[in-house]
Amino acid sequence: MKRGRFALLAGLLLGWPAAVAASPALPVVHVIIHDHAFKPRVIHVKVGQEIEWLNTDQDPHTVTSGGNNVDDGRWKSSPLIPDGAIFVLRLRRPGTYPYFCKPHQFEESMHGTIVVSP
Ligand SMILES: [Cu+2]
Fold first, then answer.
1. What is the pLDDT of residues 34-76, one digit of tens each?
2. What residues have a C-beta under 5 A from ligand 1, the ion?
3. CA gyration radius, the chain
């Protein structure tokens, strides 16, 4: 009896974060970094919607805010994202946000755009 009760409690505790993560109306938007490219290059999200970049390259990359290879500081630039790691971002204001990878800023495929709508 005691054991059953513990199992239920553990289930609730373990289930709680998952329930919170699953409940938002807006799904996570995924960007894959592969072969030195952001895929897809352009994404459309709503204010507050979570964006996740997953690096599948052996080379580390960044998600740095700005156009023309200049960090405009709109968000705290990601650190170098190693192979298999993710960077998570939520933007709070509508607009069009260009971004790029700092180490590979001269590669066309290492630029992306986030379009945020209300
Ligand atoms: Cu890169």
1. 999 999 999 999 999 999 999 999 999 999 999 999 999 998 8
2. 61, 101, 104, 110
3. 18
19, part of any domain: no
Question: Which CATH number characterizes residue 42's domain?
Answer: 2.60.40.420
Is pTM beyond 0.90? Reply is no
Is residue 93 scored above 50 in pLDDT?
yes
- The phi, psi pair for 87, rounded to 5°, reads -120, 135
In a domain, 1, yes or no: no
Quote the ligand 1 centre to 61 CA distance (angstroms). 4
Distance 75 CA to ligand 1 centre (A): 18
What is the count of structural domains for the chain? 1
